[in-house]
Every structure is written in structure tokens, then in C-alpha cells.
Amino acid sequence: MSKGFTPSPATPGVITANDLRMGHCVWMRDGKWTADPREAELFEDEAIAELALLDATSQAHLVVGPYLIEAKRGADGRPEPAHFREAFRRSGPTHRHFKQAEFEASNV
Amino acid sequence: MFDARPQHNDQHREYLRHRTQQFRRQVERRLDGSLTEEEFRPLRLKNGVYLQLHSYMYRVAIPYGALTPDQMRMLGHVAERWDRGYGHFTTRTNIQFHWHKLVDIPDSMEALNSVGIHSIQTSGNTIRNVNADAFAGAAADELEDPRPWAELIRIWSTDHAEFQFLPRKFKISVSAGKQDRSAVSAYDIGLRIVEKDGQRGFQVWVGGGLGRTPYLGQVIREFLPQADLLPYLEAILSVYNLTGRRDNKWKARIKITVNERGLDVFRADVEEEFKHRRQQFSGLDQEILNDLRAQFAPPEFLDAPVEGYEAARAANGAFRSWTDTNLHPHRIPGYASVIVTLKAPGATPGDMSAEQMRLVADLAERLAHGDIRVNHDQNLVLPHVRKADLPEIYEALRAVGLATANFGKITDIISCPGMDYCTLATARSIPIAQDIAAHFRARGLEDEIGEMKIRISGCINACGHHHLGHIGILGLDRAGVENYQITLGGDGYETPTLGQRAGAGFPADEVVPAIDRLVDAYLELRESPEERFIDAYRRLGVAPFKAALYPADA
């Protein structure tokens, strides 16, 4: 398991990586990649997560450095980050500068 | 103007064209699956391309921090065309673009090459971008211009076949003033131009470096004749290449080699190697140096009355404050060097928008002999400005938010990108810097406090040089929460000192109150307004400041 983390129903996980061509953060769902972290698949079973991570690793033509990381199940059932590093990966830089707002508005 | 610099000659352009074509093909091969990420990663790193938290980061070298207006305009163009409209200047006088796409980087690289700049050796275990005093060629206390030497080192070290796979990265800095402004004690090799018996030479420092095991450099040669510089550098690099540890990344820097083996043993090996290396240098390096000296000839300084400048100072308090704070003495009467701090209230330290880059390029071209420097405080310098032109420059800078009068003050904070961008970071640093700056700006205490160097790093790798801050702040991850250790008493310049950790760390929202208590204690304890924080700390020791930081323990 990546980074020593083993998912369970109490501590589910998500698989994340960076897009090879563009570099932005992506999350795995059903063997595919999404830029929306709320769409990420929550893994609660170690064996299933291991298989999914193998699948992710095999997609080196699409993503760089996939890893499994702990997440929380939010009130709406969607995944939320368990650690502040992953929260910043979701949100982008936590300070505002120059044209950042424009880029966020255009969802680049 | 410096368009005749070697960076701009045909041979250099052809070399860059070849390298960029090579990298373009490497990107194509990665995208079509011919190269795995493991194969591609060292290739992209050799060209300054990192994958950070949210995007690829493209690091571009600015040798000895010197830029022409055309180069600055091109940085602005790259920022707008292939990034998000801004760039981030670093303590190593590189610029980092934090939002590049891999597929765009060859085009961005090619555009930069068109004005002679590049990203070669901005990563990897090679000799990195060479640093020098940002006031080179202008400072009143300078023995000679260090840029020809820095450029000679750049030419020699670029693609030097023997030193492409060193045990670890390697950084060199050159200083030429009576006062060290290049923090030579914090570099793998630091060079100070000195004089002895009427002869110029170098005082050579070795083994400095910060990171998780910080060391100040030690003097390996008190006086090295100038003509021996490159063979002596080769001797040091060669001994390090053979004896530096490769079994442990964290013990591979030359600072560990020197300290594990002992300076005397290391020096003996270097001196022995130097005998052989010296014979291999036939004098071509000195011929190149002479050409470089001609190419770095000073601009044609102009006589200009300073009455208008004095009148503007008398009439405009904000201008007077800016000139009191953001000027550095020039060797030519009627001239000054201007520090353009990239530390406006609320700004990210070191960040600059494309609009600001264009404005500074135009100003430099029109009013500052076409010369721009980046310094390791993450600020810019216009080294040659007639005082008569300062009112116009000030108003132009003010219009784009670049006339903050805070050079060397508590709001002029060095900060690494931290966890807002960096994959290595363990905590954020930019918001901490912004909060501290906003707080002391609001309290109106910048001038009252005087010189104060706050340095913030978002991890133990110490890119924000926290060990050298009068107040250093190190961001860590403590059980999933950002936590900040404070170090006190660091200094990278006239009295090189590593700051000492004061005690337990603080949660993010307690950092500003902690710094506030430190500052209040200093204001209370100092003997006079002339006694700086660092002076008071040296006089009194850590105890009263520790008591201020941890009042519950007092």
C-alpha cells in the first residue's frame, strides 16, 4: 500500500495522481481519472484498493505518481481529505495572487 | 547595455537550440510511452522541470541575478503565455513558474532561449546557477566587479562533463564587497574577492549549507591568486566527487564530506589535486576572463544635478521614506542603486506579475542603463540610477505596487513557496509571511523596529534560509497539524551564525502573536533605537527572548 496506509471502513482511502500532460491533480474513479476530488472513489477494502492502485500505476501514459491516501467520508457520502496536504491539493494555493481568481473562474 | 554578454553569442544560442530540441523530443517520447516516468524524470529535472503539488514547475536560471530589459520582458511573456501571469523569484536568483503544462514547456524554453536564458542545471546533482552580489559593478565598497568571475564560473560549469553526476547538488556564490552581501558562508563554495599585499585574490570558503544538517562554511584557502580560481574549483569539486557520500542522500552534500573527514584532511586532498589541475589550465580561462571584463564594462555614467531629487525628498514624505529605506550607496556620485522589494503588503514574497515585469523592464531601459538584478532576498535591484531620475522611477513603481519602503525591515520576509506549491513541504510558509507582514504593517512598527530579517521555510530543506534569519521560522507537520518552530539569532552576512531553536513549536494561528511578543520584548530591551534586534540578541542572549516567546514558562 502506498505510504504505509491501509484502507478500511473506518479509514477509507482515495487514489490520486497528477495528470501527465497538464500536471494538475486527478483522482481515480472506476479506473478512470477525474479532476473533481468529490467524484473520487472511496476504497474501504485493502485488496480492492491494491488492485485499483496497480491499475493506476499501469496508466503511466496518463498520470504521474499515483498513490493511495487516507480520506474521510463526508456528510454527503463524498470523500473529503483527511490531511491538510491533500486539502491543499484539492483547493489549490491557500493565498490569493494576481490572476488566480480568473483561472479558478474559468476552471483551467 | 549587456547584450554582448557571452550568454548572447551565436555559439551559446546554438547550444541552447540543440538542448531545447533534445528536450522537446524527450517530452514527445514520454508522451508516446517510449520513456517511462522513471527514465524521463532525471531528464526533465536536468532542464529545471519539477512536478509540484498542483502542476509542473519550471525553474529558469538567472545567472548572478542579472537580467536585461529584453530578458525581463520575456519572463513576463512566458508568465502570460504559458503560466498564470506571474513568476516567483527565489533565494537562488532563479525564477520559478508554478503553473506550466508539460506539453508547453519546450515552447516556453525556446522563447526564453531567444533572449539567451535557460533552465539547464537548475536541478540535479550538478553545479547550479552561480550567485553574486546584486550590487555588483555599482557598490561603493566593492573591490572589483564579481560578474566576470561569476560568468567565467558559469561558462566553465555548464555541461562540465566531470561534474554532471556529483554526489549532490552544488552551489557557488561570489562576493566582492568589503561587506559580504552574498552569504558566502552558506554555500558549498563561497568566494570573496580580497586583496593581499596589493594583489587581488579569493578567500575560499567550503562546506556551507543549510537543510536538515546546517553548517557554516569554513575557509579552506585564505588567499588564492585570481588566476588559480578555476583549477582550484576543479580540485575541490574533484575531491568531493570522489569522496562525497553516495550511500545516503541526506549525507551527500559537501558540508558533510568536509565535516566528517575534517577540514585539514579535505584541504590536503584538495591541495594535492590542485597541483595536477593547475598544469591543465594553459591560460585560456584568463583570456576568456579578459574578454568578459570588457563585456562587463561599466555603463557611461552621466553627470546629473541632484537638486530635483532633494526637492522631491523635501516635498514628498512617502518618497523620502522610500529613498531612506530602498537605496544602496553607489560608487559614482549622483547615482544610487534602487531596491525594488517584491514584498508589498499582502503580496507573496518574490512573486511578480507580467505587468510589473514589463514596467520594470521599460524603466530599466529608459532610466537605469538597461540593467536589472535579482537578489537573494527575493527582491529586484536597479543597480545604476541617477538620483535625478528617482522621483520618476518611484512614481512609476508606485503605480504598479512596487514602491513599498521596506527593504531590510520586518515586512521584507524571505519565504519559500511551502506547501502552497511544493511537494517536499511539510507546512505552508507564504500565508505565515503574509500574516506577519500585514500585522506589523497594521501596527505601523516597521521603521521603529529597524533592520529585522525574518526567514521562513516550509520544510527542513530550508529553501527559505530560516537558519540565517534574525528570526527564523520552520514549518513542520506535527501529527497532521501545521506547526512552526522558531529559531533566533541567525545571520548570513557580517557575522555568520546559525540561528538556535528557541523551544517548542507554535500552531499556525499562534505564530504572529509569538513574533509580536518577541518584537515587544526587543523594543523594551534595546539600549537605543540604533541597537538592532540581532545586536540586542547577541548582547543579552536567548533568555529574555525565550521568556517572551513562552510566557507561561517564565
TrEMBL record, chain A:
**Source organism superkingdom:** Bacteria
What name appears for this protein in its UniProt entry? Uncharacterized protein DUF2849
Q: Which organism is it from?
A: Paracoccus versutus
TrEMBL record, chain B:
List residues traversing the bilayer: none
* UniProt keyword annotation of Chaperone present: no
Query: Nitrite/Sulfite reductase ferredoxin-like domain spans which residues?
Result: 56-114, 339-400
Q: What Gene Ontology molecular-function terms does this entry list?
A: 4 iron, 4 sulfur cluster binding; heme binding; metal ion binding; oxidoreductase activity
Give the UniProt keywords, A-Z.
Answer: 4Fe-4S, Heme, Iron, Iron-sulfur, Metal-binding, Oxidoreductase
Q: Does the keyword Iron apply?
A: yes
> Highest taxon of the source?
Bacteria
Q: What sequence ranges are listed for the domain Nitrite/sulphite reductase 4Fe-4S? A: 123-277, 411-549
List, alphabetically, the Pfam families matched: NIR_SIR, NIR_SIR_ferr
- This protein's name: Sulfite reductase (NADPH) hemoprotein beta-component
